[in-house]
Amino acid sequence: MKKIFFGIVSMLALVAIFSACHKIDTPPTAELTPDVYPQTAAQLTSASGPIYISLRSDFAVTYWFLQSCSSDEAVLPIFATDWIDGNKYLELHRHTWTKDNAWVASGWTYMTNMIGTANQTISVIKASAPAGDAKNTSLAELKTMRALAYFMMMDCYGNVPLDTLYGATDLKTNTPRAKVFTYIESELKAAIPYLKTASSATYGLPTKYLAYSILAKMYLNAAIYTGTARYDDCIAACDQIINSGLYAIEPASTYLQMFYPTNGPSQKEFVFAIPFDASTTNGYMFYARYDLNRNQGIRYLYSGSTPGGITDPIMNQSSGSGLNNVKPSGPRMTTTEFYAYFNDPNDVRNKQWLTGPQYWQDGTPIMVNTTNLGYNQFYTGGSPSASYTYQLNLTPLGTSRLGATSYDLGKDEIAWNTGYRNIKFLPDYTNTISRNQNNDVPVFRYSDIVLMKAEAIFRGGAPTLGATALSLVNSVRSNRTTSAALTALTIDDIYAERCREFTWETWHRNDMIRFGKFENTYGLGKTNTDTYRRIFPIPSTAMAVNSALVQNPGY
Questions:
Q1: CATH number of 196-275+440-524
Q2: Distance, CA of 503 to CA of 526 (rounded, Å)
Q3: pLDDT of amino acid 429
Q4: What's the predicted TM-score (pTM) here?
Q5: How many other β-carbons are positioned within 10 Å of the β-carbon of residue 353?
Q6: 41-72: b (≥16 Cβ within 10 Å) or e
Q7: 144, 205 in Cβ contact below 8 A?
């Protein structure tokens, strides 16, 4: 049941046939032409495949880096000459990006490609499919996916062009953010009556509750996007999902399993998730490549038929196992400021972190062989090439040994072992041939719906369904920690809960901005307080092909 999504047949070639503009006087020779395809519900589903491929294509790479490495949640330092990559990571972390930053450019390309793919497929189905419920539902699903892409663009880039007609040749200028907001809202509201309710058959596909989730997130951030608070509307959208009775908060015993490579339709918190398959090249999900220390491999050591009982999941080294090609790079870590939110020893969410001395699953310490100089580049003794063996120990990120203003951690083992690593999306023990992973990635979870409603009430929205902001926050906490329930609530309590709950799930930049913390000082020299950086610049690559675009303020 896990990969139902991959049963959708991608009809990219057929769509290309329909949209071809070459030799239009030549009779088509393909059997599937616009007058016969797509006609049935199954054909409509297959024809819609490209939009889901487009969403999956760069969500777990470019989109993740834009959202997480521009916040205090994650940082990817450099190690001498490793991971400089045109300073694209440094600029994200220190809020010094320009319109030429590679992540800024690839993010724009990723999101506009989604919109273009949706526009193209909508055009094909409008022109070819017969009228009826199947067509209405298919178009509603595509418009919901396009609305999701526009929400992502509006959140990241602010004033973006609205281009909803496939084949249009006129250049679109930026639409004010508030008008983009209104467009997305109207599209989702119009789609909801035709969307399906959630079931195993709709896993990875847009449903009514994805539409309500996007609306809830928009309304929660409406004061930022439009200048007008919409907290009651946020609560109403959340209530649509809550009242469905289709979702529930996972207990502590299964919280971590939500993110295993075996996750899928059975996860009762997943309102909308992106299915990933390690065997496909249409979108990579290889968090472990970045997050595991390079002295740890991706093969998983565990006892029993499943890893569900594992309390301290550690990965096996690849050396000698035939898995050298899946050895991780190990550069990504969290900041000390973000890790400080994990201060409850009874919270199951602490187990998503690798910290301190590391052991194999059988309790054997992970030992690393190097040299005195290889371990410490500042070694001054008389035997720099002598063998040095040590137990792997992950230390918290502080200032670099190369200086308080350095983004470079160094070129030795001490540098590579700096920083606490996240394994929430557990390295894929089911896949031993590549660094790609089978872990599906949630975009909206039910706990997010509950915490959004709590925050909206706390910020002034009217309580509903007998719930209070405090009771809602405690309903999540009671499934995550055995510590006592909160007896009072502050806005910082809600923020801290969101930090713990949604680590590595691409929401932290959005949260930092809404809670007024995006300009904080943290990590490796992040001191920039420019508020205009709450949105990214229009990339140079986009400006070069569309002269009608206007650069965002400050850039």
A1: 1.25.40.10
A2: 20
A3: 82
A4: 0.92
A5: 18
A6: eebbbbbbbbbbbbbbbbbbbbbbbbbbbbbb
A7: no
